Amino acid sequence: MPQASAARGKAVIERAGCGACHIVPGIRWPQGRSGPALTGFGDQGLIAGRLSNRPDLLAAFVRDAPAVLPGTTMPAMPVSEAEARDIAAYLYTAETR
Amino acid sequence: MLNAAAIPVLDPAGPYAGSIAKLSWILIAMAIAVLGIVIAALWIALFGKEGLKARLGGTSAIWIGGIAFPVVVLSLLLVYGLSLTRNLTAPVPADAMRVRITGEMWWWRVAYLDRHGRPVMLDANELHIPAGRPVVLELESNDVIHSFWVPRLSGKLDMVPGRRNILPIQADGPGVFAGQCAEYCGGPHALMGFVVVAHEPTAFEALMAARRARRDRAASPGSMLFRSSGCAACHRIAGTDANGTAGPDLSHAGSRRSIGAGILPNNRGTMTGWIGDSQSIKPGNRMPPYKMLSAAELEMLAVYVEAQK
After folding, report:
1. pLDDT tens track for B125-167
2. ipTM of predicted assembly, 2 dp
3. Residues 6 or more apart from B125 whose CB is under 8 A from it?
4. Which residue in chain A is spatially nearest to B298 when comparing CA positions?
5. Element (H, E) at B130
6. pLDDT of B167-208, one tens digit each?
7. Which end of chain A has the lower number of beta carbons within 10 A, N or C?
8. Domain coordinates of chain A in residue numbers?
9. Subunit contact A73:B267, Cβ cutoff 8 A
10. Per-residue confidence (pLDDT) for residue A1, from 0 to 100
11. Can you point out the beta strands (E) in chain B?
12. Which domain holds residue B230?
């Protein structure tokens, strides 16, 4: 993903509050349990158990999950397309801590 | 907002915080000057010429440096400091807007008062004020001692059970200002934040008028689920039969900048996660997890709360 920045992605994750539902590596608080933990996402088989784990699909899912996967609990989030790519870059590169 | 560690404490946005910040800088400068004098004296005592050492250890040096200097400087500083921060304790204009804020474990009850001190609008965890005018806060507590602190707008003042403490705040311009409970109050005390939103006076009046005008809260699938899930036992939504007072008033929850008392941004995702399992976000808070709700129900509740502007 050209121009995607994991560092920016982390800031967006904190601003959008992804931790309210997800344990995200490198985010100390919050560590919500409503959604799945996102540790080791590079090794994840499928996104939400349905989509193949491709960067473009992950970015699309992060931004507007119901549009990609109708019926999913995860709502559309207030992030831009570029920010969604940054989040995906962070999830793929963040180490489990 | 959202990060207590990042609230600037010496960046005043109004006259009350301004006098405190000015006094803080003067105290910091004085402390540095006195430390410099002490270090110089220590240097002379260790490495200075014999003549200087003798004068430093003499009676007149003790009288001047040890008694006269502190008495004069500290007395002047006390008088100056008290006059500088006099605006914090001065009587506020009788026609100033008044709001009662009550500390709860671990959130803030907000009641806008009329000129007779009667609550006319209830809210929680967020306060809207007109910019450029003093606003009087009546600080109370329903349980333990909390401390109300919005560093950019005013000083820090304890909320003591059984007492009413008065704190004036003012923002010189529109903006969003973060606050934080500043007295350890148990459990998730560190996650007890607050948000003040200052508006241009005309915009503020429009906001309040719009809120007062909202009474079209007809029953909907969301409101029925809100009631059948038990939410209404603790939460109030004005104009509906949801009348619980144990938890934050949700009449305007959809327009809030934050959820969970100033700690997370307010969006569909955080709202869904909070309703489903707030204990994993703010451990120990008094809202139980609602893991029995389905995804569709969680979404319906989040949409319903979001609609309460």
Report:
1. 999 999 999 999 999 999 999 999 999 999 999 999 999 999 9
2. 0.91
3. B107, B108, B110, B193, B194, B195, B248, B256, B258, B261, B262
4. A73
5. strand B126-130
6. 999 999 999 999 999 999 999 999 999 999 999 999 999 999
7. C
8. 6-93
9. no
10. 59
11. 97-104, 107-113, 119-124, 126-130, 135-141, 146-149, 156-159, 165-169, 175-180, 193-199, 258-259, 264-265
12. 221-306
Is residue B186 included in any domain, yes or no?
no
Task: Evaluate whether residue B157 is within a structural domain.
Answer: no
Residue B57, domain member (yes or no): yes
Write the single-letter amino acid at B309: K
pLDDT for B234 equals 97
Residue to test with chain B: of A38, A73, A83, most B Cβ within 10 A: A73
The verdict on domain A6-93 having CATH code 3.40.50.300 is no
Question: Does A21 contact B268 at a Cβ distance shorter than 8 Å?
Answer: no
What's the number of domains chain B is made of? 2
* B269 neighbourhood in chain A, CB within 8 Å: 16-18, 20-21, 74-75, 77
Q: Is residue B194 part of a domain?
A: no
To the nearest whole Å, the CA of B31 is away from the closest chain A CA by 36
Among B57, B88, B119, the domain-final residue is B88
pTM for the structure as a whole = 0.91
* pLDDT > 80? residue A81: yes
| Contact check, Cβ <8 Å, B264/A20 | yes
In chain B, residues with a C-beta closer than 8 Å to the C-beta of A32 are: 273, 277, 280-281
Q: Which long-range contacts (CB under 8 A, 24 or more apart) does B231-235 make?
A: B231/B301, B234/B287
- Chain A partners of B299 at a C-beta cutoff of 8 Å? 73, 75
> What is the per-residue pLDDT across B43-69, written as a single tens digit (0 to 9) for each?
999 998 998 888 888 899 889 988 999
Cβ–Cβ gap B295/A73 under 8 Å: yes
